[in-house]
Amino acid sequence: MIRLDDLQVFVQTVDAGSFSAAARLLDCTPAVASSAVMRLEKELGTRLFVRSTRSMRLSEDGQRYLPHARAMLDALADGGRSLAEARGEIAGPLRLSVPSDLGRSVLLGWLDTFQHTHPGITLQLHVSDRAADLLRHPIDAAVRYGPQEDSRLVAQPLAPLNRRVACASPDYLSRHPRPMHPDDLRQHNCLCFVWGDLVLDRWAFDLPKGPHTVKVKGNRISDDGDVVRRWAVAGNGIAFKSALDIAADLKAGRLVDLFPGQGELAPVHLVSAHRSQLTPALQRLRDFLRERMDALAA
What we know:
By secondary structure, this protein is of the alpha/beta class. It contains 9 helices and 15 strands. The strands form 4 sheets. Strands 7, 8, 9, 12, 13 and 14 form a 6-stranded mixed β-sheet that branches. The chain has a 5-stranded mixed β-sheet with strand order 4-3-5-15-6.
């Protein structure tokens, strides 16, 4: 008889890419994860993975079986959610993808509160500044910045008026002349963020005379937004960050907003692949995050 926990290990191994990565997510050992998949293969009478000493990939039968395994796990979760909703509760897995800096500095604490309020929720959190493929990967929703251009996705606004902020630490400003206009940034060490393969070194502002873009440069670049923020707090240069990311730093005086209200809009959305994923749990989370982001921006 096929065991549901073996199905979960199989699906998690596919998503994580290895037994060791899946084991970390499932809080078990790689040996336990490997044994679960081998037990499932024995029940099915086929090999689900092609293994070598250096790599592992799905076999043809594994590719055929994967959507059915996902469907079985989703059906089980849907059943649990249905029973919980009948009792006025929200429950079941909630799989989220969040950007690194917002995720670590803001959302982690909020999600703790949300889960304590709704203990039936099982949270799976993916923290990365690489955009997850919501159409291919088993993620219920992603918190994303900027306009959402893919019309196939369902985007729900969380903070539509959020802006980017050119910011620096008091220490940096004590050692360099404070920029009075965005054009002055060309004379400063600007800390740049990498999105995919693109270095975001063109910073856009909404000035009284209209939109204005400045090409900046600096001696530090990272594909992790949290790293860029830490560099700025440490006095290593000027960063261009989401106001939500640095709200606590601005309030504590660790960073200074150089051009208040002039950075480009960076709206925040909760994005899902399908409307069918807008479960009561996800809708409750959407409302919770909206309230928190409104309060943070106030």
